[in-house]
Specification:
The complex is a heterodimer of chains A (296) and B (262).
Chain A: H1 2-44, H2 47-52, E1 56-57, E2 64-65, H3 68-99, H4 102-117, H5 120-139, H6 147-171, H7 175-183, H8 188-199, H9 201-217, H10 220-225, H11 246-253, H12 262-294
Antiparallel strand pairs in A: 1-2
Helix pairs in contact in A: 1-12, 3-6, 3-9, 4-6, 5-6, 6-9, 7-8, 9-12, 11-12
Chain B: H1 2-7, E1 8-19, E2 22-33, E3 37-41, H2 48-56, E4 65-73, E5 76-77, H3 85-91, E6 92-95, H4 106-116, H5 122-135, H6 139-142, H7 155-167, E7 173-177, H8 185-198, E8 203-207, H9 211-217, E9 220-226, E10 233-240, H10 241-246, H11 251-257
Parallel strand pairs in B: 3-8, 3-9, 6-7, 7-8
Antiparallel strand pairs in B: 1-2, 1-4, 4-5, 9-10
Classes of the chains: A mainly alpha (296), B alpha/beta (262).
Chain lengths: 296, 262
């Protein structure tokens, strides 16, 4: 009996170890393959032209793989999303944490989580059929599929992340700070603005970074609502014109790229660029979040 | 009669107090003399801290509460509809049990209250910060590091910073809710010395568990008690500290101060 139990213990231990090793191995392998395929491109196509090239003509002869318009497209859409999502998200978090009465809080928090659970393709569909025609009519545009449309939808997607984490950060501010401020004769709003929000600032920043991370990596929404024109978004009205993003490019072109051809490798190289950007954003968010937990 | 009234800085008259449906205080009558230190003593849960918070209405932060009777500050009812709570709290400062400096610099902590009142001139703030820190006997220790975080100070220094923060808005009354319970004896001594120097300008009401402390710092002492769990707290005896500690009128007071319970 005792030996049987011992064997069982050891087996379970090994099994758990195997699970852990497997998932780590898969992640490492993904990264290795991504690197290998991406760098296959740079044997035949200079890295510098890839990064700084202003034209993306993957099926012309010879093909041109300049991702600058795609990078700028991604940045533009993300920037719009951030500009909209930060004030809305942080404002909502402050409202839920500090202002809303208890019963409303109980409704709003789960509601925010439901928004997070909406599949992105469904959100994109709403953007495509409701927001795009509305913006087109409102601003008198040639097409409603623009950087602005994508930015608005991405902001909507980033909101639950920002609200949820920022609200946690605000809630984590010790009650004694609030009492100290109120007892000094501060109003509720002064207390929120001058003590609570500054004290929660690192958590709020982290929430914004994670929201951004989600927005940059998002594919389906931008693919469906940004119009996918790989042009340099550098004119004054680029916000109201179609753009193409890194993620949208991969999703749209992978199906037609020749397996192990230059185009195929170029898409992997885009994947690597995305990986680096997302990794950097998440890493910074982690640093900020860590500092904020240390500070408690 | 009028002159006698004028010396009463804070008065509680027939005060009953409820948290929700629970009656926490019953029939409290208390006259606090101006420019004196008044101590409230009694076992845990007897409502000492609640009495403090009635005066600056901080209990309202916690939720559903109800006050009956009258609480007067300079003969003016603190609970009258016209009373501005924000103004009240800048007249009645509070020092909490656990030091609670904001996660800001030492300077910004002390300047917090004046800034709330819209004072922003650098020179004026510098003057206020220095004066408040000197009054709280903290200036010498921090004058060269005003821009460092308040959270780097020791517990005793943090508590004196909280006192300085409160003094910066020049309150008339300072409420102290067991201000030394989280501090070591040396830090406690410093806070007590600070209180002693403050009482010429301020009226101080201190809640304390520590009877020696009450005897050392206060001119007047109130002894509070609940008869049984679930009963409201009452003020059993109130008078000169020297009398309460040497020849109390009530048996319960004597039992408590001689350490027979509590």
């Amino acid at each position: 009996m005792r030996t049987a139990q011992k064997i069982k213990e050891v087996l379970i231990g090994k099994l758990i170890l195997a699970c852990g090793v497997l998932s780590i191995a898969v992640v490492v392998l993904i990264f290795v393959f991504l690197l290998r395929d991406a760098f296959s491109l740079f044997d035949s196509y200079p890295l510098i032209d890839f990064i700084t090239g202003r034209n993306w003509y993957p099926i012309s002869e010879p093909p041109v793989f300049g991702i600058l318009p795609l990078v700028l497209g991604s940045l533009l859409v993300t920037a719009i999303a951030i500009l909209l999502a930060i004030p809305l998200g942080v404002g909502t978090a402050i409202y839920i944490a500090e202002v809303a009465p208890g019963w409303l809080k109980e409704i709003l928090k789960p509601l925010m989580e439901i928004v997070a659970a909406i599949p992105s393709v469904v959100l994109a569909f709403i953007g495509l059929t409701l927001l795009a025609p509305y913006l087109q009519g409102l601003l008198d545009l040639n097409t409603g599929l623009t950087a602005l449309t994508g930015g608005i939808m991405l902001a909507f997607m980033a909101l639950p992340t920002i609200v949820s984490i920022a609200e946690d950060a605000i809630n984590a501010v010790p009650r004694s700070y609030r009492e100290g401020s109120l007892a000094m004769g501060a109003t509720r709003w002064q207390t929120t603005g001058r003590v609570v929000v500054p004290a929660a600032m690192s958590g709020i920043s982290a929430s914004v970074m994670l929201g951004i991370g989600r927005a940059i990596g998002e594919t389906m929404v931008v693919l469906m609502v940004t119009g996918n024109a790989a042009v340099m978004p550098t004119s004054a009205d680029s916000v109201l014109k179609p753009v193409r993003t890194l993620t949208g490019t991969i999703a749209q072109e992978m199906g037609e790229a020749v397996f192990n051809g230059p185009h195929y490798f170029a898409l992997f190289a885009i994947g690597l660029v995305l990986f680096v950007i997302t990794f950097a954003v998440n890493w910074i968010a982690d640093l900020v979040l860590y500092r904020y937990r240390e500070g408690e | 009669m009028v002159t006698a009234e004028a010396q009463k800085k804070v008065q509680l008259q027939e005060v009953n107090f409820y948290y929700g449906d629970f009656k926490a205080l019953e029939d409290i009558n208390l006259d606090i003399e101006a420019n004196k230190v008044t101590a409230l003593i009694g076992p845990s849960g007897c409502g000492k801290s609640t009495v403090l918070r009635l005066i600056n209405r901080m209990h309202e932060v916690a939720g559903r509460t109800r006050v009956e009777g009258r609480v007067l500050l300079d003969s003016e009812d603190v609970y009258s509809p016209g009373m501005d709570v924000v103004g009240l709290r800048s007249r009645v400062g509070e020092i909490f049990q656990k030091p609670n400096p904001f996660p800001k610099t030492i300077y910004d902590n002390v300047a917090y209250g004046p800034r709330l009142q819209g004072r922003s001139s650098r020179d004026e703030l510098d003057g206020i910060v220095e004066r408040a820190l000197r009054q709280a006997a903290l200036w010498k220790e921090v004058q060269n590091k005003l821009k460092t975080s308040a959270l780097e100070l020791s517990g005793g220094q943090q508590q004196r910073l909280c006192i300085a923060r409160t003094l910066a808005v020049e309150p008339e009354v300072i409420l102290m809710d067991e201000p030394c319970s989280a501090l070591d004896p040396v830090a406690t001594q410093q806070i007590e010395d600070t209180m002693d120097s403050l009482k010429k300008d301020y009226t101080i009401i201190i809640v304390t568990h520590n009877m020696q402390q009450a005897a050392r710092v206060s001119e007047y002492t109130g002894f509070m008690l609940i008869q049984e769990t679930g009963e409201p707290g009452r003020l059993v005896e109130y008078g000169l500290t020297s009398k309460i500690f040497t020849m109390p009128d009530r048996k319960e007071t004597e039992n408590y101060i001689t350490g027979r319970f509590g």
